[in-house]
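Protein data sheet
==================
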Amino acid sequence: MNEIIKLCEGYSRLDKTDNLYNLLEPFYINEKTKPIKCATPWKMIHKKTSDVAILALHGYKGYPGEMIYPGLKLYTAGFDVFCPRYPGHGVSKEDFCNTDMNDWLSCARTSIGYLEKDYKEVYVMGHSMGALIATIISKEFYVKKVALIAPAFNIKNLSYLKLKILKLYKNEISISWKGDKSFWGICERDEGDDDYLGKTYWSIINLKQISELTKIKNLALSSLNKLSSDTLCVIGDKDSSVDFMKVEKLLKKKLEKINIKVLKDVNHLCQYFNKKEKRDLCNDTIVNFFLDAE
């Protein structure tokens, strides 16, 4: 935490002293496991409150710490930034499986509803599933600007038919996962938290929860048809989770106000990439997009 404070004097945890946290706390009431530190919901607020707040939304099986890098850039540019945690994320497999799409969406809707009362304008950015949720709430709340990072509109190797067949035979599938410490970013951390997340979330495909992700994807796809927001998409051409070419084609077809930035030799973690120049390119693109108000 000290490292973040050195870079951002406005950083603090969202906790019981915050009205937003108290609004979100009922979503966590059934969790039996305490969240690990990197899953700490956070805010970055200037002493003189900004006119514009950015709501940052992390991805499926992700955590708020993954959004620290763009948050720091946005804070430096003059924005106040908030990042909540979805229920069931950063805790345990049992807690994760006891949540669904409605819990994750409700967390985001509650957050933007609260921020709209305190700020003249609220923009939204999201990563992966967070980008899908950003699309949905931006349509619902008439958000002026939304930034989509590696949006999961087309998930590789995932089809509704394949999912339906697999669910007849098993509840989850184990996959290989290996940690890469070069991707460790600036956020609050526990010892071995990356290995814990790998064992609990990233090495397991839970078919019930994948179904919930698919429902969010379908809702986001339908939201695109009525999305009036000025939209940015930043995506890597080496994304192994999302088909960047299909996403690019989809967004160009569906949206009039769309700016797409394809990052070369970058994977799914655009905003969190382990090469600083690539990470900065992603996050600076987002900052410039939000600064360029009409």
